[in-house]
Model the fold of this input.
Amino acid sequence: MKCWEIFRFELTYQLRRPWPWLFLVVMVVFAFFSTRIAILPVTLPQDFILNSPFIITSVTVFSCQIWLLLAPAVAGEAAARDRQTRMHPLLFTSPVRKAEYLGGRFGAAFALQALILLGVQVGSLLAVYGPGANPELTGPFRPEAYLAAYGFLALTNALVATSFQFAFAMLTGRPMASYLGSLVLFFLSYPVTLTLYGSRLHHRALLADPIGILAIMNEMMSNWTIVEKNVRSFTLEGPMLWNRLLWVGIALGMLAILYRRVRLVHPVPTDWWSQFTPRFTTKVKSPAPTGFTRLSRSIPPARQSFGFRTNLGQTLAVARRSFQGIAMSPGGLFLLLIFPMLVTFTVLVKMQHWGVPLLPRTAYLLTRHLTGVLTSPTNYWVMVPLFTIYYAGELVWRERDAGLSESVDATPVPEWVLFLGKLLGLGLILATLMGIMIVVGLTVQVIRGYYPFEIMRYVQVLLGLKLVDYLLFATLAMTVQAVVNQKYLGQLFTLIAYLVMVFSSFLGIEHPLLVYASGPEWYFTDMRGVESSLGPWLWFRLYWAAWAVLLAVIARLLWVRGKEQGLASRLKIVRLRYTRATAGFALLAVGLLLSLGGFIFYNTNVRHAYVTDDEQVQRRADYERHYGKYEGIAQPTRVATHLHIEIYPDRREATIRGSYRLVNRTRGPITSVHLEPAFYVKTRMRFDRPARAVVADEKLGHFIYALGQPLQPGDSLTLRFEVTFEARGFDPRGLGSTGAGQAILENGTYFTGDALPIIGYQSQRELWGADDRRKHGLPRQVTLPDPGDIDPRVAADAPAIFEAIIGTSADQVAVAPGELRRTWHQGERRYFQYGTDVPIIGRYVFFSANYKVHRERWKHVDLQVYVHPGHTEHLNRLLRSIRASLAYYSAQFGPYPHRFLQVIEQPGNFMGMGVDGSGVITGGEGFFQLDPKGAGFDALFEIMAHEMGHQWWGMQLQAAFAEGGGVISESLAWYSAMQLVKKVKGREALRQFMSIMRQPDPWPPMRTGLPLLRAMDPWANYRKGPYAMHALSEYVGEARVNRALRRLIEKKVSSLATTIDLYRELQAVTPDSLKPLLHDLFEVNAIWTFNTRQATAKQTAAGHWQVTFEVEAQKVVADSAGVETKVPVNGWVEIGVFARAQPGQKLGKPLYLRKHFIHSGKQTIIIMVPQKPARGGIDPYSLLDWEEGDNIEEIQ
Done:
């Protein structure tokens, strides 16, 4: 009964306070806008119903992340209010049992948290059914979807989080300690689990996530089809079930530990170190009474000096005590000790690609692991602003929480000393953290055996560039606390301000002049350095520093001092605090922010053409509305391109003078030519014959020229143009944009043929996204047509002869597509001439940098490799893969048609490689981070083999813009790489390669979805497709499958290919007995499951070994709605027996490897082998069964 009274009192007490209701409102608003705005971008062009189970569940789990940062105020208050108000001695003397006290308080806190999280469902309902809702996005009301999300996710998260928060606050006696519990859970739910998921511990990562966001995103976002996301309800099953059971168990365990540790007695000191030091007492003898004694020296007189020197000393003293208070607290120790250790572990785990270690070069470490954008919530550096929010409240309220505020307020210390001292203390913590990150970076480099240390780069980036951002945010957090004058409310408002900074674009606030502490980000790569990005960054940070000074002035004027703490009372004394010095600082700050803001606005909006996201959407809609009628209109074909390019890296400028030869390959005359120049360059165009510009739409980038005389079939004309790159002003979007200022750099110039004029209407410029199209009155856009609807006579993209002369500074190498024909010097300039003998396709790419060049010939092909001088470790591996690919692919699929092949390192720390046209392969600087000393899997060989495969699949054979198009390009390129690995390195290397490709990062496997003939998702294109092709080659024969692919190229080299064309060729080489397998691989979404239940062996009298397997087989077919139907297994499946594996091998030498006819269910298989077996089973190489692990067993 007392438990109920305590529960009722605590619940009533907190419900009378504003915080729970304010938190409820925050959750309703966040869920409302998440449902209506933030979730919509993931819809792409497809339709999601706003009240679909997928949207409801996603909004719930993301809202729980935000709630996790609000909830500690409730749990901490319930757990530690008695200790904080010093009422605990009286309470603990009352006849209340520990279970009643803890149960009542915890139950009330949990009930309040459940109420607050109920606001998520309320917000979602208001977004769907409230005013302004789009009825076209509303499906049938499914109460079970809301109940499942609330019960399975929200309530279990409330239990887990409340138990941690309550335990932390109760054990320490401090309400703010509950925030540490939340931050621990937040850190586990996001950075740690993502790190584990990116490694081979992905199954454990799904369990380690306390909030369930990873499991939701893995299961629903990646594995469910659009149809499933709209109709399938979220249930507890699979990894999510085990995740919930695990964390509910941990929560109950935390409560059990709390019950055991808590004693309702007067507590001993609760400093953090008291938990680790023995308690002891010492008897102290009372001194004998003595008479009065005279002091040997007189007390020196006090000098009342309150000048700047004294204030400076006071400021430093406050800063020192603030620093020590944070550093010696549990949260400070976590931030300065545990957090760096976790970062070190995370970096070491993530410094690999496909299991191959990466070289820990300084630029890569700093940009990918040791720093993060202040407003990016997608990495573990989001912990720094969260800790800043927490400790800003702690510092401002430190004296008041200790009951010493009146004494401190009576001291002759100016308000600015208190504010600045506490801000400096917080800044010293952040600087210490950045200094520790320097040690973390050096430690990682030492562990990985990398010793070219660049300590000054660490100092420049961590103690310079990143610390500035953190100090700006710390100033904001301290000011909010000073103005609001309520710790929890101040933290809430600061968190809201941070969320506004993070999601400003969703709120329509895009310009960096309007988003605190934002602006173009710096970048740092080995090729480009960091200096070229510092100009815009510095101007914006100076602008925000002026704002920070103004915030500090406001904080000083409204600093709480004395008994009168209300905002109205503080506003009355502002004029008394507004001294001449304060006015001077305020006027200086206002003058700086106005002048700097005007200068920045001039550079971003006047000199540079700034366009908002809404304006870009409007332009796309207007473009389609005005010029969509010209889609498919007859236009001349470009058959030759001639360019003369002048790059000036020191001036960051470039000019292109060029011409297109255009031919009318249609059956009728062409009377007009449609041209589209790039937006970010200046372009002048003219024809070699009379032509009049009837449309010159510079805003939408579409020009129509009416020819004086129609261009007859077979006739040609020449388009001449001049394109100018000029870095004008600042690009507020920074490196992520395609502006001219980001293309031409002092070292690492890179731009594409997108800067050149384009012929005809471009459908890719149309408005993309179902919701945006509805808002602008555009018809629904079909994502991709069915491959059977493609006209087989539609011609492929016309290739063109290409020639370019490209000039750059004397110390750099310029690169363009084609065979390098000659190079020469002219004054202080260096020139290169590239050209092709046969037409090429793809976008053109152009580079200029201080490249290290390797050239050699393979038969008639000029091999060119361009890499940064410090990234030459992989040349031999690259060339080995290139030579092997050219030899194997030419023999199997047809000759390589070009006289050149270029591999170019592209500026940027990304890991990917890609094909940028015929004969051109580019790779980011991150790709060249692969450690050449790494033993085992040779990722570089396999990845290069895949990109080489695109010279046949994607370049020679072009896929139609239809469903299954990714199978033609990506699946066949990966299949080709698999066959090359098997030929060059053997079956064990292929098995290792395929095992690594089965990792769920970046594409988790999908049981449902469209069959391969219509596949559109990345997992089908990059994983399922190549595995299906490989399985077919193992059954039908590699030679037959490759012969079918060669015929496909020969037949469709001049037209677009679809999966129907591919399937037709595969059918032609597949025996009738195996056509059911071909059907299951391509026409339906078949899923096989094989299991070796038991494997035994005994030696016969003849010395052979009889092996007996108990195996089980199942097969289901899944449709796009996620419905799985069991179908019988009646087909050939491989059975294998293997000898003892050598070190480094998973399977030893095959003793037996043949296909057996297998049916559904359990069955026994008996085979004979010549020597003692070690392992064996059904489908040992996982040709059909995607899941590894239970197919092979140790033979007993």
User: Anything to note?
Assistant: The first helix runs from residue 2 to 15.
